Amino acid sequence: MDHQQPDPRDVVAGLLGDERMRAILRARDIGALFELLNKRGISTRRLAAAANISQGRLYDYVKGKVRVEKLSMFEQLADAFGIPGALLGLAARPWEPVTQPPRAAPTPEVLANTDDLAAMDAFRLADRTSGGGRLYSAVVRHLSDSVAPRLLNGGGPSVFGAAAALTEMAGWMAHDSGQDHLAARHFATALPLAQTSGDTAFAAHVAASSSHLSLQSGDPQHATHWALLGIQLAHGGPHLPSLTARLHSMHARALATLGRLGPAAQALEQASEALAAAADETHPWLSPFDQAALASESALTFADLGRYDDALHHAKRAVRLREHGRTRSLALSKITLAAVYVQRGELEEALHVGVELLSTSPTLGSVRVVHQLDSFRDALEPHAAHGLVRDYLVHFDQARRTRALLLADIMPPREGSGSGDRTITR
């Protein structure tokens, strides 16, 4: 039934960064557009109604019997489906903002003429709001097309540093796409690149990422190893409090998973003290680790230790501190807060946050967020006899089907409950 289908405008919004979609729009192939949207779960009846055409005419477009030629029809379709005019060779539509929104995923063609640090900043900005799922291939292409040739031609330390930074970012985007095997490969490549460049601080940063990934893979021993290696490397470089804080928080997470209450709490205290210190200098390649990120890690650490009062305090603080422009980070922080409420048996509070989570953009290209939401649902399932929980699960499952359709191009098949991954704000 149509009411169970995703909104066509939401589906289109989720595909605007997809190269196949862009090629269809550049070619003005409306039949291919309808076919693509139909494969994403939208019936031909609903597509025809949205476009204000008959189903028979829609079939003619799909089968190639008729092509859209009139400018007025292209404008009608752009307005009906929320397609920016420029993508169909039109002037900006009246509903488009006068000022452009935050930069989306930069195309490889643009990045080929952009310096590495600017490319990194553009990727990072798009990643925070849109998720890494649809950015991963663009980062890999930038590495292969722009950075790798300079490495092969005897690039100096700065080129190796750029290669390390962008390779580590590719690892995080692979992780956000649910492809942890690729993430591990990228992190393993980034570490020697950073060491070759002589950048011990960034090598420590990569070690922190490897610690996180080991933790998600269920290997707290290796997570501990990587955190301690990172702390050791950081001591040999410039004084960067945020880096030191991140490493100590990773160490705390690993210790908590091992059930080591005292050492884990001590590591968190070291992280807090480090973050309060002034830096000797800044580092252009490091992604920030701020008070909101520390609060999120602290919430997870105390939850693993069964100290739910402390976990709740830090989870609330993480949500309060996280700026609203960080769509994925805010969603992950809210999931942590909702999960802590469930662990405390406070179901109404958990559902209140859960309702907010249902409004998270369904086009956010983060498989990690989807898996975290699945884990939250799994935690609620034992309480399904509770009327409010039962009603919420119905709404959740409807939203989950829509999200799966919108992210079908980047979501790997789900294995188990997806509960292995734990929240971290980036």
Automatic annotation (TrEMBL):
Give the superkingdom in one word: Bacteria
Q: Which InterPro entries match?
A: Cro/C1-type_HTH, Lambda_DNA-bd_dom_sf, TPR-like_helical_dom_sf
The record's section on SUPFAM superfamilies has:
lambda repressor-like DNA-binding domains, TPR-like
Q: Is DNA-binding among this UniProt entry's keywords?
A: yes
Task: Domain (HTH cro/C1-type): give its ranges.
Answer: 35-88
Stored CDD domains = HTH_XRE
Q: Which UniProt keywords apply?
A: DNA-binding
The answer to whether keyword DNA-binding applies is: yes
**One Gene Ontology MF term:** DNA binding
| Name of this chain's protein | Cro/C1-type helix-turn-helix DNA-binding protein
Q: Organism, per UniProt?
A: Kitasatospora cineracea
Q: What is the lineage of its organism?
A: Bacteria, Bacillati, Actinomycetota, Actinomycetes, Kitasatosporales
